Amino acid sequence: MKDKSYDTDLLKLIDFKKLPKHIAIIMDGNGRWAKRKFLPRYFGHQEGMKRVIDIVSASSKLGIDCLTLYAFSTENWKRPEEEIESLMKILVSYIRKELEKLVENNVKLNIIGDISNFPTLARTEVERAIFETENNTGMNLNIALNYGGRDEIIYGIKNLLNDYKLGKINIDNLNSEIFSNYLYTKGQPDPDLLIRPSGELRISNFMLYQIAYTEFWFSDVLWPDFSEDKLYEAIIDFQKRNRRFGGL
Ligand code: IPE
Ligand code: IPE
Ligand code: MG
User: Fold this and answer.
1) Could you give the CA distance from residue 20 to residue 30 in angstroms, rounded to a whole number?
2) Which residue among the candidates 7, 65, 76, 159 is catalytic per the annotation?
3) Residue 112: left if φ>0, alpha if ψ -120 to 50, beta else—which one?
4) Where would you tag: which of 78, 115, 182, 247 has the fewest CB atoms within 10 A of its CB?
């Protein structure tokens, strides 16, 4: 059973003046969670979706400006068709279940990645959610779908070359700040804190351009067991770090 008083204790340790503006999470470990319980992987993804609901709500309550959740990578197409199908179903059910709450909580949904090849139903539901949250001014929620860091850089270069062809950009003036506006995260700050549960110590093609100075926080807990407490722990740890950005 979760001890709610523990939440409150951890919350008290958070310095609300020094919150990370942008938190990114690699939501990993759903399959292993299910396996440990002798359940099909699908159950792990379903439980993982519940954690999405909890963490979106906790982050928005804390006052985080931007939350990015890695839900499906460009490499995840290598999985069996039936697993991909179940992930698409879960995506649709997440939106149907949560859209109203996102609107109510002033959360603006944004997709990073290319969903043009997603099944029609998943795509239409996602587009509906983007449309209905378009004018929200609270937390930006980026869901990374068919997302890969390398793909995003190439997408950025293609966009940039288009503008170059149209005479909209002078290559001599190009710098990292201008380039970042050609990426999916256009206009958003780079992640301050990247969280990866499940015990894997790797990036798995996530936000390669944006994580230049991001603080990493790893945990062995599997995503379906991730809780608000874990989020608070990560933030408290983050706030103890000395970020130098190459300076002294
Ligand atoms: C994360 O959990 C969800 C996706 C990548 C879609 P996994 O499905 O990767 O779970 P593990 O890593 O096999 O435990
Ligand atoms: C990363 O997890 C992608 C998502 C969480 C969506 P994976 O499970 O796909 O990563 P690897 O294969 O362990 O690197
Ligand atoms: Mg995994």
Assistant:
1) 26
2) 76
3) beta
4) 247
